[in-house]
Amino acid sequence: MKRRVVITGVGALSVLGDDPSSIHRSLCEGRHGRRPLLGFELPSRTVSEAGQIAFEARRYLPQGNLRPLDRTGQLVTSAAQLALDDSGWDAERRREHPVGLTLGTMFGSVRTIAAFDQRALEAGPQYVKPFDFANSVINAAAGQTAIWHHLWGLNSTLTGGPTAGAQAMAYAADLISIGRASSVLAGGGDELCFESLFSADQAGLLAPGRGEGARPFDRQRSGMSLSEGAALLMLEEASGVAARGGRAYGEILGHATAFDPSRGTDRELGIEVLTRTLKQALEEAAIDPGEVTAISASALGSPRVDACEAQALDRVFGAELPPVSAVKGGLGESLGASAALQAVVILESWRQGRMPGVVGLEEHDDTLPLPRLSAEPFAVKVPGPVLLVAVGLDGNVGAMVLAPAT
Amino acid sequence: MNKRRGNKRRGRAIAVTGLGAITPLGSGRQEVWQGFLSGRSGIGPVESFDTSAYNVHVGAEVKGFDPQPYFRRLESSAVGRASQLAVAAARQALDDADLEDADFEKDGLDPFRCGVAMGTTSGEPLEVEHFNDLRAVAGLAEYGGELMTRYPSHVIAAHIAAELGFAGPNTMIPAACAAGNYAMGHAFEVLSSGRADLMLAGGADAFSRITYTGFARLGAIAPDVCRPFDRQRQGMIPGEGAAVLVLEPLDRARARGAHIYALITGYGLSCDAHHMTAAHPEGSGAVRAMEEALRSSGRRADEVSYVSAHGTGTPTNDRLESRAVARVFGERSSVVPMSSVKSMIGHTMGAASAIEGLVCAMAVADDRIPPTINFQEPDPECAVDCVANQARSLDVQVAMSNAYAFGGNNASVIFEKPSAH
Predict the structure, then answer these.
(1) What is the rounded average pLDDT of the residues A283-309?
(2) Alpha carbon A251 to chain centroid distance?
(3) Structural domain count, chain A
(4) Which of A121, A134, A154 shows the shortest C-beta gap to B132?
(5) Residues A226-267: pLDDT tens digits?
(6) Residues A123, A26 share a domain
(7) Which residue in B has a C-alpha nearest to residue A161's C-alpha?
(8) Is the distance from CB of A351 to CB of A317 less than 8 angstroms?
(9) Is a pLDDT exceeding 90 seen at residue A47?
(10) Which end of chain A lies in a sparser environment, N or C, as judged by fewer CB atoms within 10 Å?
């Protein structure tokens, strides 16, 4: 018998704020979090803005030595603090019971790794810092977070590109449902750095131009806005939550992940893979498409990837398509953090009674089979199941069904 | 107590039906396994970069590797070295499982139910090196953005799936030096829960100056040879490689008449939450991983015939690992055979526990266990039977593979004879 998995707390650091209600409000107001680049610029100067957070780890982690943590580590450790506080997992409870951590990240910290190598090149291999080497492994942020908060349950890092956070939540949900874990922080995080932003620009993945941001599902969409962030959800086995007098925001009813082996080069195969994934998640959740009350789309502003998602949604829902929300026009593509941030927005939408629309949408794209998209928020009269979609840039896809706690 | 051996008492068992590996000792299941049994060493002077600025100069590189024959859909030059090693090991493993061309129809497989779970320590670190070399010399004006497209570690699992046409779950778990075991554990769950019918699970890492620099800076690299559990051991030796196991639900494997090397019957994961690069002094995380692995497979410690050690050859690891094994195995810890193939191929990072998975599967299948070579002087702090220098014949009913990693990640996997189920 599978155990039910509920969400009892969230922690989110994003370019639109560090608490769910302000993130939600900004998205409903159609705001974006891009700002002029701080600390570096790109040689091409075609991109002068990105989703950097004015982030001070001390605000979240008042005690302790922050020096061993790089930026990704600090973002994730801070988000974990918020999620632990929100769910009532104080230090004493963590000593008694194992809390796990499953973290999705695309890069870990490519900045740390590049800087480590650069120092060895310039100064000589004996002058690198051991701290930096410890952080050069891709699971560093998860390890550092576990040490900081004494999370002695299972600890895994998953790197499925921008779907990593969805994979990490699915991984944790499965381990809880089969009884291998009872309480797991799950989500993801990635920092924004020169190496990632520059490479995305050189690879032609960014929306170009000063002040131009990503415009998901828009006729003029031309690329993503790269962002940073970290978001973690406390996932717990349902009966244990009731027993400790905790409260749940929502429940994970089902999920699925898959891979497009053509990595976007075979349009039809890409749509088929995503369609099957969405259906599989609904099937596992034991709900019909008609029962889904809203979609949290992955759409990031990519001409190809957004079109694939639109087609798959059409194949699954047809005329029954519920209202679609897409937040990356505001939050940007925050890679490992993306799916967990989508989840945070879904939970907050149930509380607030409205859900952000397709943030950044200006001009309808007639070639997409999604006729009723709107940038405006829509009302959530009775909270119900929401389908969260995660689509990567090179093949990975995931889907998850969240429902309000009953 | 009761006679557990041979009892068909519990549900979960996944069949290991194919094995592939590219290692510093050789390529392919047979060559690698024979290499281990003969106690050969794959360690030598580092050739892939200049080590004159370092105070150590040995490594365990894969020499003369040609990825071309393994690539039929993708361009081998379009992917990084770790991906090349991984794709090669995956092709070998499928071939070994008699599923060579992944002819889905013929094999009764649905590509949507064929997945990949891989582990790594560093992903494709050569892409970072390339980026830094360009930055230092030619400038970045013509840079193609490969840190975004070729570097992120998930591309290793993605490249395997793209090469083979696998559309099922695709997971990359960078649990550093325990990553292969994490990948196998995840594949075990994916198959047990019915999310896939076939999983390729393993690990891969490419030899990299970044990794080498780091371990050199920590003073962890041995100057000449790797001698795990020896009193005079001086450290580990960085290596590279890849290994992939074909995993299938037992009933499916039997139904298609597959040769079953071994079963995976359980695994355990734990986190020290103690220190990034040093193991817990009491080995408590390692103990929990072993205990959970035993519990999940329904085995007791006294039923374990062979332990594949993490056994890096660093003074600290081997001491703490011996202590942890003593806590789990009690008095038997000094007599249960426990060897480390890292004595022969160095520490292949994310590939290590995947290669050691191959070792355990073959030990179970072949009733032989590989030695720990270079062993000369016992260390009272490592009171284990490390199968010194000579392979041994042994009735291997149950094998345990242990792996420990930066970040405090520990993972143990249990392999058993197919006749046990």
Answers:
(1) 97
(2) 17
(3) 2
(4) A121
(5) 999 999 999 999 999 989 889 999 999 999 999 999 999 999
(6) yes
(7) B154
(8) no
(9) no
(10) N
Can you tell me the distance from the alpha carbon of A264 to that of A9, in angstroms, rounded to the nearest whole number?
35
C-alpha closest to that of B201 among B213, B188, B215, B210: B188
Say whether B347 is catalytic. yes
DSSP string, A128-186: S-HHHHHHHSTTHHHHHHHHHHT--S-EEEE--GGGHHHHHHHHHHHHHHTTS-SEEEE
Task: Write down all domains in chain B, each with its CATH number in brackets.
Answer: 15-420 (3.40.47.10)
**Are residues A218 and A324 located together in one domain of the fold?**
no
Contact status, residue A251 vs residue A6, Cβ threshold 8 Å: yes
Residue B234 token pair: 């001086």
Which of the four pLDDT bands, split at 50, 70 and 90, describes residue B9?
A: very low
**How do residues A360-396 score in pLDDT, each as one tens digit?**
999 999 999 998 999 999 999 999 999 999 999 999 9
Specify whether B280 is catalytic. Answer: no
Interchain CB distance below 8 Å, B169 and A201: no
Nearest-CB residue to A128 (from B133, B174, B213): B213
- Whether residue A258 and residue B148 make contact (CB cut-off 8 A), yes or no, is no
Q: Are residues A230 and A262 in the same domain?
A: no
Residue A372 sits at φ, ψ, to 5 deg, of -110, 30
Which residues 6+ apart lie within 8 Å of B257 measured at CB? none
Cα B364 to Cα B395: distance, rounded to the nearest angstrom: 8
Mind listing the pLDDT tens digit for each residue in B392-410?
A: 999 999 999 999 988 788 9
Q: How many residues does chain A have?
A: 406
pLDDT in tens, A140-185: 999 999 999 999 999 999 999 999 999 999 999 999 999 999 999 9
Assess whether A273 and A236 both reside in one domain. no
Q: Are B263 and B421 a contacting pair, CB within 8 Å?
A: yes
Local confidence band at A132 (pLDDT 50, 70, 90 cut-offs) = confident
Residue B274 pLDDT more than 90? no
Distance of alpha carbon B390 from alpha carbon B371, whole angstroms: 5
Cβ–Cβ gap B276/A108 under 8 Å = no
Which residue type sits at B412? S
- The whole-chain average pLDDT of chain B stands at 94
The pLDDT value given to residue A211: 58
Instruction: List Cα–Cα distances, B290 to A147, A151, B276, B328, B341, in angstroms.
Output: 21, 19, 20, 7, 19
User: DSSP of B337-399, one letter per residue?
Assistant: BEE-THHHH-B-GGGHHHHHHHHHHHHHHHSEE--BTT--SB-TT--SB--BSS-EE---SEE
CATH number of the domain encompassing residue A17: 3.40.47.10
Q: Rounded CA gap, B4 and B300, in Å?
A: 9
Domain end call among A193, A220, A250: A250
Q: How far is A385 from chain B (nearest CA, A)?
A: 22
For residues B256 and B99, give the distance between their C-alpha atoms in angstroms, rounded to a whole number: 11
| A143 and A39 belong to one structural domain | yes
pLDDT score, position B1: 36
Closest Cβ–Cβ partner in A101, A203, A273 for B149: A203
ipTM of this complex: 0.97
CB A199 to CB B145 under 8 A?
yes
Under 8 Å between Cβ of B162 and A262:
yes
Say what the pLDDT of residue B5 is. 42
With a pLDDT cut of 90, the percent of chain A lying above it is: 91
Q: What is the distance between the alpha carbons of residues B242 and B180, in angstroms, rounded to a whole number?
A: 9
- Summarised one tens digit per residue, pLDDT across range B100-122 is 766 788 888 999 999 999 999 99
- Radius of gyration of chain B from Cα atoms? 20
Shortest Cα distance, chain A CAs vs residue B178, angstroms: 11
Catalytic, out of B159, B186, B280, B347? B347
d(CA A55, CA A193) in angstroms, rounded, equals 13
CA distance B326 to B343: 21
By residue range, what is the domain housing residue A281? 253-404
